[in-house]
Amino acid sequence: MAGKKFLYAPAPESRAILDLKSSYGLFIGGEFVDPTDGRTFKTVSPANEEVLAEVTDAGAADVDRAVQAARKAYDKTWSTMPARERGKYLYRIARIIQERARELAVLESLDNGKPIRESRDVDIPLVAAYFFYYAGWADKLQHAGFGPNPQPLGVAGQIIPWNFPLLMLAWKIAPALACGNTVVLKPAETTPLTALLFAEICQQADLPPGVVNIITGAGETGRALVEHPGIDKIAFTGSTEVGKMIARSTAGSKKKVTLELGGKAANIVFDDAPIDQAIEGIVNGIFFNQGHVCCAGSRLLVQESAHDAVIAGLKRRLGTLRVGDPLDKNTDVGAINSAEQLARIKELSAVGEEEGAERWSPPCELPDRGFWFAPTIFTGVSQAHRIAREEIFGPVLSVLTFRTPAEAVEKANNTPYGLSAGVWTDKGSLILWMANQLRAGVVWANTFNRFDPTSPFGGYKESGFGREGGRHGLEAYLATGNRGRDV
Ligand code: NDP
To answer: Atom 9, ligand 1: which residue's CA is nearest?
Structure first.
C-alpha cells in the first residue's frame, strides 16, 4: 500500500431540498410583486452556466415603491413597536435560518459557486449568529454607549456584493432592524437568490410588511436607491470605485453613509512562526471563497529566512486542494462567480507575468463549462507590481519578502487600502507591536479570515469607513450625532 493514493469518490450534496421557482418578482411591502416595466434578467450557476431562475430588474419606479413601503412600515409599525418585540422577530428569523440552513447553503453554493463546505460550515452559521447577536441588542440599545435614548435613522438603503450574498445581507439587515430602522436591500446582480429566499423567511416569520424590502437588479438599481430622496442611510459593500461614486452622490445630503470597500491585505509570516499552521492560514487567507474576499490575505509578506520553507510547504499544500463542483462536499475551491470576474483575474495574472513575477499553479483539471481559475502563486513580486497593488479578488497570491519587523510594517502599509492584516509569529510582544503599527481595521494573529458577530469589522483609507458587527455596528443605524464621514 506504500505510496498508494486514495481517490475521492464524488460526494454531491442533493439539490432536492430546494424549491426553486422559475421566476421571481420584487419583495415589496411583504409580498412578491411584479415590476413596473417588466424587465428581467437570468441568474446562472457559475459552475456550469445553467440558468437557475429569472429575476426582476427593478427600475426607478420600483425603487420608489420599495422606499415608500419601507417608510410606511417605519412610521406605522417598526419604529413604534416596543424594542423587545422587534427583538423577538429577529430571534424568530435567526431560528428559521437555522432550521432552513441546508436549503440556504445549497442555494448559496449554486448561485455563487462557493464550496458547500464553506456555505454550510461558515456562511450560514454566521448568518444565524449575526441575527441572534443583534436580536439580543434590540431592547438594550440604551446601554450600548450611544446615549440614554438612541433613536433609529429611518429607512436604510443597503447594497451588497456577490462574494458573501447572505452573510452580507445579515451584516446589513440584522443591526438595521434591531435599531428600529426599515430597509430596502439590493443584492448583487449575479447572486440574488438567497436574498429572495430570505424574503420568504421574512414572510414565514410574520415580519410586518415593508420592514424588509428586497429589490433585485444591476448597478442602475443600486444607483437609483442611493439617489432616492426618501433614504436616510446608505450602507454599501463593494468596490472602491462604486464606493467613491456613492460618497460623491450623497455628499451634502442628510444621508448617513457607511462604506465597506476593497482591500489588499498583508499576511505577514515571521521565521519563528509555526510554519505548518501558517501555511494553513495562508491557504485560508487567499483560497477561501476563491479569494473573493475583501479582507483576503492577497499579499504574503514572508521573512526572507523562512521564504523557501514556506513556499515549498505552500506548494505541497496547494497540490492537495480540490477544485471543482461547488456542491461536492470534498471541494475546497469552487467556481469564480462570473465571466467578468474571471476575465479580471486572468488579465491581472497575465500582467503579473509580464511584469516579471514567477507564476505557479498546481496541476489541476478544471471543468469545461463554467468559470474556473486554478489556485495561483506569484513569487518574486515587488511592491511596484500591479499584482501587489491592485485587488485581484480571486485565488491569486502575491509573495513578497522582508527582513525586519519595521520593513514588514512599511510594506504592509504601502497600499491605498486598510481593511485587514495577519501576523504569524511565536512572540506575543511582536504581535502587539505589529498590531499597533498596521493601518488595518482588523489584525488577525496566528489565524486569518475569522469572523464573529461580536467583533467590529471595517476599514481605513480607501477600504471605507464605518464599522459593521459588534456594538460598534449599531452606531451606523442610530442617530448618535455622528453622520458617518461628515464628522
Ligand atoms: P460593485 O461595487 O460594482 O458591486 C457591489 C454592489 O454595488 C452590487 O450590488 C452592484 O450591483 C452595486 N452597484 C454597482 N454599481 C452601482 C452604482 N453606481 N450605484 C450603486 N450600486 C451599484 O463590484 P463588482 O461586482 O463590479 O466587483 C468589481 C470589483 O470590486 C471586484 O473585482 C473586487 O475587486 C471588488 N469587490 C469588492 C468587494 C468587497 O467586499 N469589498 C465585493 C465585491 C467586489 P450589480 O452587482 O448588480 O452590478
So the answer is: 188
Over residues 284-296, the mean pLDDT reads 98
Distance between Cα 314 and ligand 1 center (Å):
31
Q: Is 364 a catalytic residue?
A: no
Number of residues written out for the chain = 487
User: Which atom of ligand 1 is nearest to 190's Cα?
Assistant: 46
Task: State how far the Cα of 324 lies from the Cα of 335, in Å rounded to an integer.
Answer: 7
Q: How far is the CA of 187 from the centre of ligand 1 (A)?
A: 10
Query: How many C-beta atoms surround the C-beta of residue 165 within 10 A?
Result: 27
Distance 282 CA to ligand 1 centre (A): 25
Full set of structural domains in the chain with CATH: 26-261+461-479 (3.40.605.10), 266-445 (3.40.309.10)
3-state secondary structure of 459: coil
Which pTM was predicted? 0.96
Whether 85 sits among the annotated catalytic residues: the reply is no
| Percent of the chain whose pLDDT exceeds 90 | 96
Q: Are 131 and 167 in contact (CB under 8 A)?
A: no
- Residue 68 DSSP label: H
pLDDT confidence of residue 424: 98
Judge whether 394 and 351 are in contact, CB under 8 Å.
Answer: no
Q: What is the pLDDT of residues 386-422, one digit of tens each?
A: 999 999 999 999 999 999 999 999 999 999 999 999 9
